[in-house]
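Q&A log
Question type: sequence-to-structure
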Amino acid sequence: MAEAADFQGTSASPARRWLRRTGALLAGAPLLAGLLQLPAAAPAQAASGDPVSVSLDSLTPNAPTDGDTLTVSGTVTNNGKQTVTGAHVGLRVGPMLNTRSEISAVARHPDDLQGAAGTEVGGKYEQKFTKLAPGVAEHFSISVPVDKLDLGADGVYEFGVALSGQTSAQPWQQLLGVQRTFLPWQPSDADTKTRTTFLWPLLSTVHLTAKTGAGELQTPEFLNDDLAKELAPGGRLAQMVDLGKDLDVTWVIDPDLLASVDAMASGNYQLPGDGDTTTPGPKDHQALAKQWLADLQKAVVGKEVVALPFADPDLASLAHRGTSVTGSLSHLKDATDVAATTVKTVLHVTPSTDYAWPVDGAVDPSIMRVATSAGADRVIARSDSLQDTAGLPYTPSAARPVGGGTTAIVADAKLSTAFEDDLTKAGPATLAVQQFLAQSLEINAQTDQQRSIVVAPQRMPTAGQAQAMATAVKALQGGTWSQAQDLTAAAKAKPDPNATTRIPSTSAYPSALRRQELPVSAFGQIARTQDKLDNFQVILSDQSRVVTPFGRAINRGMSTSWRGREEAGDSYRSGVESWLDDLARQVKLIDKSETKLSGRSATIPVTVQNNLVQPVGHLVLRLSSTMPTRLKIGGKAYAEQPVDIAGGHAQSVKFSTSANANGRATVIAQLYTEDGQEYGAPVTFDVKVTEVTPTVMLVIGGGVLLLVLAGFRMYTQRKRAAARQAGEGGPGDAAEQSDEPGNPDSPGDRLPGESDSVSGADDPEQPSDPAPDTAPESTDPSGTGERVDR
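Response status: OK
Response body:
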């Protein structure tokens, strides 16, 4: 009651309204007296131990005008253990609330019995219940002409639904339950209307992986089938499109969502199966995706469409943790460049890409620098971050020039956060709508100067939140104090010279938001994956088959949707890198075992395998010898040859080698890109050299010459022996023969080093002994290198 008295004391009402409220206080005196007679603990007991809860499920129209009939419906539930008798539900009109802070104060404690105030609309505008049994919910519906509410001047009124009754323990009429809300009252058009921009966000979590099929269509693979649930009738995204088509709003779209739905609409997408297998997506989901895209295309006709950078990158995480990793900002530029193309391709409209939207509109100098680094010159902030410090008695326009050609679009925090609660039930949703309308009307009543106000709700509203938002926007469109305006017009509106343009310091960034940011390791992994992609793409004949899916997956790895989901984000980024590694390993060297090399020169083949479906090239295969003094490749320590391989084929590359000495030499085969970067793992193998040296060849040649001479000697001995047997025998003849030139026994015809005896050193030669048929056998060991392998 004290709170109500404070409100009445601060209300600047006309005389008629003052008289009406004075009468209302007098009429409420008996009730006040009855409450004062209660035991001191009774109100606390009723509020905490034995209350009746009142749910206000519907209030139509949300902003009534003259001649309207207000219909209020909901439920009352006895949460206590005693039956409530003699109960009735009535409507109460409280004081007019003159400030936005008063509205917020009422909204914080809507069911506080001690805060209940105002006059109950009597007569037939109530609903009675003989009794309310414990735990039983009863429905009520009350309709009352607006002129019976005795509303005064234009403004926002506190409005409540209250249940009064008695119990056996407290057998007197008392207030047992209340639900307070707001009744905007602006029966005729305001002299000046607020221009209101309501952003309608169409975003989702990450759904597509980097994996695509090997066929011509490159069938995409999804993380799961959750997107289909959102697109189905009644799903979150289906509701957003269905509700948004009739609203004067600015569509804010993540191009990644459009790309994902478009991939599903193709009908060839894959879902994870058991283990490493995949399974085709259901055909009926293809129809869902096609219908959703068709509905969206119709919904955005004639409306402003703002495209966020692809996959909605987390600007705050990038500013606070990503800039320390080289190349991180380039991903933001890439995501911005592809945004317009994606939206235009899918929706056939040209979007605006001039806007950046940090999480919850929280900004600091580093976030502003990052947000504008990719070309955006308008940053959507929020008034609880960019707070006015000049003590303005009104809410200034959203546009604020903050220097460097950048404009901060400061959305109103109270309007933007009005729909963040759980609104799956009708009661909380109704309260959210009425509070939003009350704040909007109060803004308009602050001054006669026209202003441009922006509402930037949460990024991914639930279906219930979307329905409440749509109800509020429809009420504004049909109301008398607001007119719709798109975001570009709000950005171009004349800024208030008294509004703050000072960006808060980095230390002022909310700690709760900072704890949800992507870690530095996430940007490190993104940079590592990008380096691998850069190295891989140069060998491809059709780079788009790899660069496009992996480039978009890298963008998704830094999405705002990973906030508060660190483990899921890490898993996604690791999956992208792992899949890229798997693809890169499809082009590889085949392992080799030890190779034996005989002779002075030979060729060594090295096989390169390409298991990709597309040809690869721009590769160089280098074969290096670790012991070039023993084994040279192409006459030097290493040799290189270009490699071009068709898809699904292998190529054997041959290198000429030359050996200088026997033994093992280790050889390393390594692929390189044309710019000198190593590609893939090397293959190392040993070459066993068994080369024939010049010294060995000299020994072999000498041996062959000796064999030839021995053969000649054998031939001449046999010929002479045959001549002796054919001629006359006798000692005289023998003596004569021994002196003849060419006689083998003649000292002059012996070979150098030949002994005097052929058959034995101690046996004198007899004329009748046969000539030997073999060369003398040497008992010395064979010379080095005489035994060679060929």
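Response note: The longest strand covers residues 84-97.
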